[in-house]
Every structure is written in C-alpha cells, then in structure tokens.
Amino acid sequence: MCGIYGFAGFKEEGLLDRMGRVIRHRGPDGQGRYEAPEGVPFSMGMQRLSIIDLEGGWQPVFNEDQSIAICYNGETYNYVELREELEAKGHQFRTHSDTECVVHGYEEWGIEGVLQRMNGMFGFCLYDARKREFFIARDRCGQKPMYYHHANGRFLFGSEAKSILQSQHYTAEVNLEAIDPYLTLRNVPEPATMFKGIYKLPTSHYLHYKLADNSLKIARYWEVPLLDARTAKYKSDGEYFEALEHLFYDSVRLCMRSDVPVGAYLSAGVDSSLTVAAMTRYSSNINTYSVGFDSPVDETPAARETAAFLGTKHHEIICQPEDFDLLPKIVWHMDRPVGDALLIAFYKLAEGASKDLKVVLGGEGADEAFAGYSFQGVITKVEKMRRMIPGVTSIAAPIFAATPPGILNKFFTFPADLGSQGKKRVVEFLSKYSGRDLNHNFNALRTLWSQDERRDTYSEKFKNLATDAWMAKEKEKDKHGPFLDRLLKLQYDEWLQDWALIRQDKNTMAHSLEYRLPFLDHRLIELAFTMPAHLKINKGTDKFIERQLADKVFPQHIARRQKIPFYLPVEYFLDQPQFKSLVAETLNPDAVKKRGYFDPAKVTRLLENMRSTREFVYCKQVMSLVVLELWHRVFVDKSIRFD
C-alpha cells in the first residue's frame, strides 16, 4: 500500500517532492521517483508502505531493459500465481514484490490483458519509454482512489487530490455543479469532484496518455456482469453454496498474503464475522478491532462476543465527544466532502489498529453483492407489488403518510427511528416511484435532501442548482437483467467507491494502515450475479446464502444475529460542548451568509429542528453542511491547514 503521484507535459522545480511530502502518511517507509530520460516531460513518484518484499520491493520497478517503469499503490493478491506464469514464459524477476508482476504482465499481455488477470486493489502508473506514453489504472471496485487534472497540455495525477494542489499551475476552485449531487448523495459521484478541473479516474477504467500530443483516452476493462432475465438458467442452490464457500475462503487466503502481521476489523455483522472466522483457518494469532460510541446502538458487546467465540485478541475503540474536534483534520485527509459523522469512527478505528499492525481485513462489499441493505429489500418489494397491481404505489403513498412513524419503524431496518423526515422520504418515494428511472428511485430512497428541500435551503442565487439532471440513468443494456441484480449493479457505479470505500481508504491511510476486503474479489462478485434472487433475499432475510455459510461456523445466536445498522449516533452528542461548538462555528448565520450557497434563516431553522426533535435525518443533514463548510475552509479558503 502506497501513494503515487506525477505529472506530464511540463516541468516544475520541486513539484515531485512536494506531491510526495503532502501524502507521506500513505507511505512513511520510503520514497521512490522516476523522471523520464532525454528531457521527456514526465515524472512520477511514490510513498511506500512496506507490506510485501520488505527489503527488495522499492519503486519504481522496471522490466529487464528498464524501458518500462511503474509506480504502484495497493496489492495484487494473486501475484504468486502471476509470477509463476510469467517466469514460465521467460520473464526474469529482480524482486519478490507483487508490483513487478504488473510490469512483466504488461509486456506479455498488454494493458487490458494484465488488468483482467489481476486480483486485487490498486492504482498505478506504468510508463513505456519506447512509446513515450503511460497508463494509469484503477482496480475493479475502486478501493484505491485516483485523481487527475488535464488542462493546457499539462497533466497531473495522484492517489490524493492534495498532491495535485501542490502545482503552481492549479489553484483550488469549487466545482459549483457538484454541490447539488453532494447534498443528494452526501458524496460527489465520479468522475466529478468538488474541485473544479480535478476528476476521478472511474472505477475499473484505465487512462492512456500519449506524450507526443498530450492526448488521453479512458477505457473500461471490467464491469459487473448481468444475466438476461428472459433466458437466465440457474444451477442448484447447493452448487452455488459450494462455489461460494470455496471462493470466499480462497479470497481470504489471498488477502492474507503479507510479509507483516494481518489483523481485522470486527463488527457485529455477519460479513466481518465470517471474514475473521476464515482468517483463523490460516493463522492462530489474529488481532481484531471494533469501534463504539457508548450508546444504545453500540455494537461492541456483540462484536466482543464474536471475538471470544473465535479466540481473537480483541480491542475496542470508543468515540468520545472530544473526537468531533478531529473533523477538520479528517476532512483534510478525505480530500473530498463526505457528509457523514461516521468518518470520525473510521478515523479512530484506524488509529487504534495502526498502533499494532500495518494490515487489516474487513467485511465491506458483501452488502452490495448479496443484498444486505434494507432499501434493496424495500425497492424489491415495491417493484413486485407494482407489477402485480399497477398504480399501487400511488395508492400506498397517502396510506403511509397517515401512518405514525412508530408503526412504520417496524417495516424498515433504519439506523434510528424513522421520524417525520424519514417518513416523508418513504411517502415521496412511493408517490413518484412509477415515473422514475431505477437509479432515481434508488437515490430517492436513500437521500437525506429531497430536491424540494435543497431548493428551499439554497440562497436565491443558487436555487437553480436543485435538479436531478446530473443523475445518471440505468444503462439500457442492463434493463433486461433480473430486477434485484439491476438494483445491485447500480451500486458499483457510485455508491460503493464514492461512499463506502473512500471513507475507509482515506482514514486507514491517514494512519499508514492497509485495508483489504475479501468480498471485493471480482470472482465472488461475478458468482453473486449468477445467483437467483432468493439466495440473496429470502422471506425477509437478507444475504441469505451468506448467512447459510455463517450457520456452518457460528452458533445460531451469532450467525442469525439481527442486523445492527452501523452509524455514529449524532443525537447522543448534541448537548456536548464539542459538537455544539463545531456547529456554531461552521453554520452560524454570518458563516452561512459569507459562503453564499444557503439561506441563513433556513439553516437556522434546520438547526432548531435538529435540537428540538433529535431526529436522525435532521442530524445527518446538519452534518452534511458542517463537512461541506469544513472542506471549503481547508482546501479553498486555506484558513485551516495541516500540510
């Protein structure tokens, strides 16, 4: 695990050093650099976190005649198998690192050929001196971020946007068109960012840059496969279970390849519990870590019980009110605004684990493949009803509107009580369901800010921002897939990498900690999308086939433990001075008016609603505004600095 960076098409004294220095947290063990020979305007570098081949894996790594060089961030888990295959074809290796497999793989199979053979998480830049061109690539699920800027013949890239900000040729400006997507989703969907002119290389894509004319093209090399529902043929449930069991344990085995000890994050959920259980097959010395909040929704007691059953050395990290003071620094590490207080928990969890380890495994990715989120079940049920009784959603909306939130709570697995605002989301979702695209329905059920609320909160100057025109629609070619799989696939184009994974990557790397996710093995994902829907959602049980696997490992009270939604319960911190101070500093009328995006009176009313009702949705809305304001102060105003 490392951080990479570089630039092309121009020269700038000291830039490479500055780009590396600002992300040294991603790789404090050493630095590597490459500058193209004969005055060619290309330079790249990396900060190394030593995990594999501790003595010999220094970058850049070259091929035999040094005509190809690479700087690499991440891990290729199947590097042992790739190396054996490449050596059999005559390639000579100088190191024992996974990185060198990419260089020789490119020589043997080309860029798409090597990418399609790699199993791992990565972002890399590979330079071909003979052709005076380079490739930048990102892993299939987007666990490793990659940013770039291209203007006036100049190209800059980096694992973090803050490396690009080090150039005198780029000045941080706000991408105003990203504000509305941010409020809607609490993140900015790729390829856009909140920085004007800085983009994310999309997940499972590579970028090809030719120095001869400073041109680039971006191509996709993998995407989630969908069966055609009209012709799909399924295997027996037993065959799918056998395949899942084999692939899952093999994925964990590959993720544990390391020259340093490996631990794990452990929650109360089935995903991390199964991951740790699988790890104990390959090691008897596992450290596990969980995070809590000393609140009624705390899952640390359940995680502690699982750890005791598995025999791990368990550690608990508790978030305290004073941890809200960390939020500006966390936003700096994030590069982008992600409107969720849970960032604090991820930061603290990584900080605790990094005191003992350099590598931890986790359970993210299972919900996306095996339907573990409540909204997936809700949308699936609504679609089934709509097909049986056309117009039923319009009929149901007023019924839900007249139903007390306390009763509706029984029908939803929500992190907190649904409340008046949560009920409002459900009613609006139902009333407009039939007229929306699938992706719009997916977003409507999970958003915290409806379009009307956004328009109402914007200042007069910015009310035109409130739109859903920016929102992607489901691809036409996917509309013949099984309904649940179509819904699940949408997550791989935005939700997974821009919401779930980025929170972990930036917070683990803030503490020089590598985070590996066995459920993101593309073989597991591809298997999941060949399964019938009843193996994912079955009679109200989510992740049905995964829970069957848990039945073989755990006693029933652990394997079938009721889902405990993981969120930071802001409502329990409202009266603490640290939280009150943070909100007062960032969202007071003068600060809101100075920023200009929002109506100060409307923000003040939102704060009053949060304090008087303590509703989950209001708390989340406030935190999204707090994080957005902090992002501006860190990166645009530069009134808060950490570099």
TrEMBL record:
GO cellular component: cytosol
Superkingdom per UniProt: Bacteria
Keyword Amino-acid biosynthesis included in the entry's annotation: yes
Matches recorded under SUPFAM superfamilies: Adenine nucleotide alpha hydrolases-like, N-terminal nucleophile aminohydrolases (Ntn hydrolases)
Residues noted as binding L-glutamine in the record, renumbered to the chain: 98
Pfam families found in the cross-reference section: Asn_synthase (PF00733), GATase_7 (PF13537)
Binding site for ATP: 291
This protein's UniProt keywords: Amino-acid biosynthesis, Asparagine biosynthesis, ATP-binding, Glutamine amidotransferase, Nucleotide-binding
Annotated site residues (Important for beta-aspartyl-AMP intermediate formation) in this chain: 364
Stretches assigned to the Glutamine amidotransferase type-2 domain: 2-212
Pathway: Amino-acid biosynthesis; L-asparagine biosynthesis; L-asparagine from L-aspartate (L-Gln route): step 1/1
Metal-binding listed as a keyword: no
Record field: catalytic activity: L-aspartate + L-glutamine + ATP + H2O = L-asparagine + L-glutamate + AMP + diphosphate + H(+)
Active site: 2
GO terms under biological process: asparagine biosynthetic process
GO molecular function: asparagine synthase (glutamine-hydrolyzing) activity; ATP binding
Enzyme Commission code: 6.3.5.4
Cross-referenced NCBIfam families: asn_synth_AEB
Sequence similarity: Belongs to the asparagine synthetase family.
Name the record gives this protein: asparagine synthase (glutamine-hydrolyzing)
Organism of origin: Roseimicrobium gellanilyticum
Lineage: Bacteria, Pseudomonadati, Verrucomicrobiota, Verrucomicrobiia, Verrucomicrobiales
